[in-house]
Automatic annotation (TrEMBL):
Keywords: Signal, Transport. It comes from the Bacteria. This is Extracellular solute-binding protein. Residues 1-29 form the signal peptide. InterPro entries: Bact_solute-bd_prot1, SBP.
Length: 442
């Protein structure tokens, strides 16, 4: 499929008669017109790639409907809260929504998403969609959302720092090796360890990398099996303790996030860092050469390296985190056919190409990585690393109760300075069990 073709040339037009019928009642807020006879589809987006998403919305609008952007809060938790409140009230104006993959099961289980069916479902999740991304949009054997862009974390580092430490970054490295290398050379290890979702991303990836899980049998809902108290849980806690006990922690570890990790790569003094972070990092540094917080010059940018997510246990393949955005169609939308048609357009290969090239938000479709635009915009080995990591990475627990699971883990594992391999996994298991059983409050 040619990712360079305009979005408009691929768009299927909704039936004007159906849209007119659906919008006959003034009570259907989701079909409010824009003055030219078209209905309006509201698309609630997260703040990433706003300008590009607005352009895609315009290109995917038709003679029958206009897609209008509505901005959600920055925090994934706040995004979930705002959308959940609207959909719990059966809001007909919440037509399209950008969802963090971890919230898809909850929304689908509540009946808030309109499933894609038949040929449309096959189109949304065909063989071109990377396995990690495809997994995020299924629930109880239905396709309940469309993968828009996929995210993963890789290990970013200063080549000069790794070389000084004697680390061969062409081979898999462990968390222990990374921490020891940074500590020995006066460098830092950048992670996300504030009390928020990204901290659970780190914990979950390390547990999966050691062959374990936070919970299993999630199809049982609240009766899911809590498995975080395990050898894998202890291995993840041991990594956190090792980092805390070293001199390689970044300033403000307990409040560190994706943004605060970035500035440590190119400090005014010192050799820089190893950092686990999302795919946006490359475009961020490329666009900040010579600016505060970015590479001081082009040579410094060339010193930026990347490798697969670190192993928790030496010899066991790591499980890079899976993230991104899936597009859901609100179940109370007056014209679901039109909204799903729009969802197909805004998740097309052409749209994914625009997001990747402009904003560093990587495709959920494998073919887009081979497009001339991406091959020009990114180093080929980085594209291959992204694609492989998304295809073989590990999702967070797929549960309708994920928000409770995540909050319970955060409650016990934060602050990272208090994590103890001998007690933290068991304490978090006990608390999570109590939360799911309704015997403890978050």
């Amino acid at each position: 499929m040619d990712a360079r073709r305009p979005l408009r040339s691929r768009r299927r037009r909704a039936s004007a008669g159906l849209v007119s019928l659906a919008c006959a009642s003034a009570l259907l807020a989701g079909c409010s017109g824009d003055g030219d006879g078209r209905s309006t589809l509201n698309w609630y987006i997260n703040p990433d790639g706003q300008a590009t998403l607005a352009k895609i919305a315009e290109e995917c609008s038709t003679d029958d409907y206009k897609i209008e952007i509505q901005l959600l809060p920055t925090s994934a938790t706040d995004q979930r809260t705002q959308l959940a409140r609207r959909l719990a009230a059966k809001d007909s104006s919440t037509n399209l929504m950008s969802l963090d993959p971890v919230f898809v099961p909850e929304f689908a289980n509540a009946g808030w998403l309109a499933p894609f069916e038949g040929d449309l479902a096959d189109e949304v999740v065909d063989d071109d969609v990377l396995a990690g991304a495809a997994e995020t949009v299924s629930w109880e054997d239905e396709v309940v959302a469309a993968p828009q862009w996929a995210n993963t974390q890789v290990l970013w580092f200063r080549k000069s720092l790794a070389e000084a430490a004697g680390l061969d970054m062409s081979k898999p490295v462990t968390w222990d090796q990374v921490i020891e290398a940074a500590d020995a050379e006066g460098g830092k290890v950048g992670v996300q360890a504030d009390r928020y979702e990204a901290y659970v991303v780190w914990i979950n990836a390390m547990i999966q990398g050691a062959g374990g899980t936070i919970v299993e049998k999630t199809e049982a809902g609240r009766d899911a099996e809590v498995t975080i108290d395990s050898d894998a849980g202890e291995a993840a806690a041991a990594v956190i303790k090792k980092l805390v006990d070293s001199d390689a922690t970044i300033p403000g570890l307990s409040t560190s996030n994706e943004g605060s990790s970035l500035g440590v790569m190119y400090p005014d003094e010192g050799p820089g860092e190893f950092m686990t972070n999302w795919t946006f990092v490359y475009k961020n540094y490329e666009s900040t050469v010579g600016k505060p917080g970015g590479p001081p010059d082009e040579e410094a940018l060339k010193d930026l390296g990347w490798a697969r997510y670190p192993q928790t246990v030496e010899g066991e393949e790591s499980k890079p985190p899976i993230g991104g955005i899936d597009i859901g169609v609100g179940a109370f939308t007056p014209d679901i056919d039109a909204a799903q048609e729009a969802a197909v357009c805004i998740t097309s290969p052409e749209a994914q190409t625009q997001l990747a090239v402009t904003d560093g938000l990587m495709p959920s479709r494998g073919s887009v990585y081979d497009s001339p635009e991406l091959q020009e915009a990114y180093p080929p080995d980085l594209l291959e690393l992204y694609r492989d990591s998304i295809d073989s990475g590990g999702p967070r627990p797929k549960s309708a109760y994920y928000s409770q699971i995540s909050s319970a883990v955060q409650s016990v594992w934060h602050s990272p300075t208090g994590v103890d391999p001998d007690s933290t996994p068991q304490e978090s298991a006990d608390f999570l069990r109590a939360v799911l059983d309704g015997k403890a409050l978050l």
